[in-house]
Amino acid sequence: MELLHLQYFSEVAHWKSFTRASQSLHISQPSISKAIRALEERWGVQLFHRQGKTIALTDAGEVILPKVEEFLDQYYRLEADIVSPELRRQGKIVLGVAPMVGTIYLPELLRDFAAAYPYLAIELVERPTAVVEELLENGAVHCGFCIVPTINGDHETLLLPREEVHAFLHKEHPLAANEALTIEDLATTKLITFTNETTLYRNIIRNFQAREMRPQVAIQGYEWSLLAAFADAHVGVTLLPEPLGRFVPQLYPNLVSRPLIDTDLSWRAALVWQEKRYAGTVVELFVEFFRMHQGLDTAASAAHKK
């Protein structure tokens, strides 16, 4: 029996699918099936019920799985203790990043992280929150910077401060004469929004629906700077987190920002990761660095565990 066989068994049980376990581990499905058969022959029990594409643990599998996972957890922690701290600071960390989070939060954070750990490469994968969560589940990224609320609650979370959402519009737009805008004001003009799968878009729709109103969505896009460009071209009004106000005037000096009132429309980012999968790795290193960089104490962050 090999350690890999136990890892394959745990992964198949987690995904309830040989195919998804294969994708997560980057191992061929026949290799995983062969490993499971080897365990079943060695232990003299059947581990999974197989019904077409659906699988489930047998009674024996239910008993064995917790013991296997406990063994693997102890092994990973032992391995982490043996590997020197210097070696753990080398390699690569892959970060999933939702729209706007990178612009607002990552430049200074990753500048300082790269200075502290120059031998650790950083790769960014920019996708909407829902996609970042899926990549996190599949093991394609180590950590994700997502917009909350997230869809999957089965991960660790460190919350960043909640930000207001402001309206950005051309200074000659009729609504620019108002010091602040309401949802009712926004219903009178065309909106330039992020795509449907983004958290901010869903929050906008929720606020309109609460008033039994429908927004006039003219254009949807993925890049905040492109949405601002359409607002600058008098297409309509775009809604963005207030911190982007530091960057918008540099690109589009004709745009002005107006706060929203009588609405709970806001925006909040968080760092999410799977602690069990990455215990003792560079992910722990990055999470701790992020916590200290943002001034987040351990007790406060623990309260935000999913």
TrEMBL record:
* Keyword Transcription regulation on entry: yes
The HTH lysR-type domain sits at 1-58
What GO annotations for molecular function exist for this entry?
A: DNA binding; DNA-binding transcription factor activity
Domain of life where this protein originates: Bacteria
| One Pfam assignment | LysR_substrate
* Recorded family membership: Belongs to the LysR transcriptional regulatory family.
- The name under which this protein is listed is LysR substrate binding protein
Q: Which organism is it from?
A: Negativicoccus succinicivorans DORA_17_25
